Amino acid sequence: MKAVRIHEHGDINVLKWENRPKLEILAGNVLVDIKATSLNHLDIWVRKGIAGVPLPLTTGSDGSGIISEVGDGVPKNRLGEKVLIQPLVFCGECTYCNKGKENYCISMGIMGENCQGVNAEQIIIPESQVVQFPDRLTFEEAASFALVAQTSYQMLVNRANLESGETVLVWGASSGVGSMGIQIAKALGATVIAVAGTEEKCEKSISIGADYSLNYTDTDILNEVKSITKGTGVDVVFEHVGQATWDISMKCLARGGRLVTCGSTTGFKANLNLTHLFFKQQSILGSTMGSKTAFDGAMTLLNEGKINPVVNRIFPITEIQSAHDYLESGKQFGKVVLSYD
């Protein structure tokens, strides 16, 4: 059996499509023949070097495939199911897990970072982590869903408590999490202002549901947001860019507004005017991955046809290095996918 593995951290050359020892299926687990996986920026960070990554590591968090074998205790009727992978792992026993707040679990991990990932011809995984997806989706689309949808839902619903009729500013609209954030916000009845870096990406933002799209390369984002909202600002800022956009994000917030962030791609330092924060009764919310309720909520929207994965480009798994290079270039809108056919 082959898998994409890294034995050391570094550039794209450390990614190896190589033979891996066959795994034994245990009770409560299923064997999945992988048909497609997708990349996240996490894959790049893991490749370059994150402390605690177990090496050698099979990379990748998001995938889809067919259940071809089941372990003891798993219903035989699951054989042949087309499934996507829920990539987060939790202890299931701590106070947070028992309260349905698994993303606070001290043992929370992600496949492809803290434990072996999905970029393999076959994987063995607990039955609870494989979920059937709608027939309308291809394997490539199904592989583009879980992590970004779970993260976006956690940000907008479980953290920011987004309500119908509110206005959301979505940075990084062309990213996987950004393109999913646009759709989830629209599904909840919000007005969405998307921000991207090219006219093409702005147009695609509109095509997936954004009400307004702003090109940050030639637009005064703050003035445009104030104009769109008639001077009040937005109720929620969906932030994952970090240092480069932080000041504008805070100035775009309305009274009682909430800024929710899951990343700091451009840097982790942020200035904060405490007077504005308490006088305008605003909130700054951190959000990491998502709970089981976030995954279930996103799956409900997917099954209802209210949101859909956005696939940008498909590479053969043997071209994993080129796929990483393409993702790092920032040219994509949506997900970069790896096919196993």
Describe the structure.
- There is one protein chain.
- By secondary structure, the protein is of the alpha/beta class.
- The chain folds into two domains: 2-145 and 309-339, Quinone Oxidoreductase, Chain A, domain 1, CATH 3.90.180; 149-286, NAD(P)-binding Rossmann-like Domain (Rossmann fold, 3-Layer(aba) Sandwich), CATH 3.40.50.720.
- Helices cover 28% and strands 26% of the residues.
- It is built from eleven helices and 18 strands.
- α11 links the parallel β17 and β18 (335-339).
- The mean pLDDT is 96.
Major sheet summary line: 7 strands, mixed
CATH homologous superfamily identity of the largest domain: Medium-chain alcohol dehydrogenases, catalytic domain
What is the tally of helical segments?
Answer: 11
Tell me the fraction of residues in β-strands, as a range: 25-35%
Quaternary state of this entry equals single chain
In the CATH scheme, the class of the largest domain would be Alpha Beta
Q: Helices and strands: which structural class?
A: alpha/beta
Write a compact overview of the structure shown.
The protein is of the alpha/beta class and 341 residues long. The chain contains eleven helices and 18 strands. It folds into two domains: 2-145 and 309-339, Quinone Oxidoreductase, Chain A, domain 1 (Alpha-Beta Complex), CATH 3.90.180.10; 149-286, Rossmann fold.
